[in-house]
Amino acid sequence: MAVFSVPNIQVKGISAAVPKQVEDNNDFALLTETDRALFIKTVGIRYRRIAPAGVTASDLCLAAAENLLAGLNWGRDEVRVLVFVTQTPDYIIPNTASLLQEKLGLSKTCIAFDVNLGCSGYVYGLSITGGLLQNMPGAKALLLVGDISTATISMRDKSTAPLFSDAGTATALEYDKEGVIHFNLQTDGKEFDDIIIPGGGYRNQLNEKQLKYTEYEKGITRNDLHMKLDGIKIFNFGLREVAPNIEKLLLEKGIDKDSIDYFVFHQANLLMLESIRKKLKVAPEKVPYSLYDYGNTSSATIPVTMVSELREQLETERVKLLLSGFGVGLSWGSAYIETKNIICPKMIEI
Amino acid sequence: MELEDFINKFAGCFNQTSATAIKPETEFRKLDEWGSMMALIVIAMIDADFGKTITSEDLKNAGTIASLFEIVKNK
After folding, report:
1. Contacts of A280 (CB under 8 A, 6+ apart)
2. Hey, what domains does chain A have and what are their CATH numbers?
């Protein structure tokens, strides 16, 4: 059953951290000036944040979590669950969540593990974290979601380099009998290679050949340890699957679309997101965008957008939100949540 | 679904190419403005205006705008 509800859960706070270093797609040398202008207008991404060597997704999430905990009235020993959603862990072994549990000073009774998901990762992460927490009265949980995707792309590949950006986020959840989150989660592994890093795993184990650069077409040069993305297939996937997934969730849970304050989409591509918005017949002012300033930060785009675009509303109002993430896997899902005066500190740069 | 309507909407996707340059026999992939961004814009237009999904193979197989129209019509 793809549509389900997790009761007894409330989101209490969201924060985000990005690297200080900014790159401007207007300086991207693999595109002509005309192509750069068309790219920024169509895809919607101008600025991207780049983590320097030595800064990982967990470092960004740690900074976001410390910033969030500073605003929450939580004892660290009350945090019983820590879920870290990333596709750029610190190490292949061990899981990075264990390192984060130690760095955050959380108790040894805390459940901590990683989840390997990208674009859909925030929505999946909410369901996994909430699913554990719903049976733990009095407990609290941290969902840390982030990626340094810029470390996985070839700067000689115009099909990926101007898209990706780095960020880490933290979301605080509490056991609360008043709260509930509704989900519709889906998967289609048939198209697993539409977004893929083919080498370096255990199907195609690391070897020298994987380091060799190949020019696939003009402006697209990479090796097998870099991310490959089939833009048209992913674009069609978004057009085909996202709106029906959201419509089904709202229909099955009896949620009036017009009552939703904001639809926060994974920040993949402005043209795709505007097409989805029009299919859903949602007004433009209900769909916030952060991709012009922060690019595609993979699993982190939804909380980054909430912090950068909706911070004031989230801190001061009751807000009804529809969240939708979709991409690598292929994996996609939507969540309906209601928040009330949550802690949402300003985006931090490290 | 009429060819003339399709051509008008196809021409509307372009910024720098004159509408008069968009004809049934135009080999659209040879237009100066054509590229990966224009492909996404045309795919989004066909999805929104005609309710059909076209693939990168469809775009490669369609030599002209008239043949792309036939591919879309027969989907």
Report:
1. A243, A246, A247, A257, A263
2. 1-350 (3.40.47.10)
Residues of A in contact with B15 (CB under 8 A): 38
Q: In angstroms, what separates the C-alpha of A181 from chain B's closest C-alpha?
A: 31
Give A-chain residues touching B72 at CB under 8 angstroms: none
Are the Cβ atoms of A42 and B37 closer than 8 angstroms? Answer: yes
Q: Is the pLDDT of residue A4 over 60?
A: yes
At A59, the pLDDT band (50, 70, 90 cuts) reads: very high
DSSP state of A74: -
In angstroms, the CA A122 to CA A334 distance is 10
| CA atoms of A95 and A73, how far apart (whole Å) | 28
- Tell me the nearest-neighbour CA distance from B44 into chain A, angstroms: 7
pTM: 0.96
Longest dimension (CA), chain A: 57
Alpha-carbon span A5 to A344, nearest angstrom:
25
| Closest residue of chain B to A279, computed from CA coordinates | B48
A230-262 residues labelled b (16+ CB within 10 A) or e (exposed)? bbbbbbbbbbebbbebbeebbeeeebeeeebbb
pLDDT digits (tens, 9 = 90+) for A245-275: 999 999 999 999 999 999 999 999 999 999 9
Question: Which of B16, B35, B43 lies nearest to residue A235, judging by beta carbons?
Answer: B43
Which tokens is B20 given? 């008069």
Chain A hits for B17, Cβ within 8 Å = none
- For residue B56, give the chain A residue with the closest CA: A232
Residue B13 phi/psi, 5-degree rounding, is -75, -20
Q: How does A126-156 read in b/e, with b if 16+ C-beta sit within 10 Å?
A: bbbbbbbbbeeeebbbbbbbbbbbbbbbbeb
Residues of B with CB under 8 A from a CB of A: 15-16, 35-41, 43-44, 47-48, 53, 55-56
Question: Which CATH code of 2.60.40, 1.10.3470, 1.10.1200, 2.20.25 fits the domain covering B3-73?
Answer: 1.10.1200
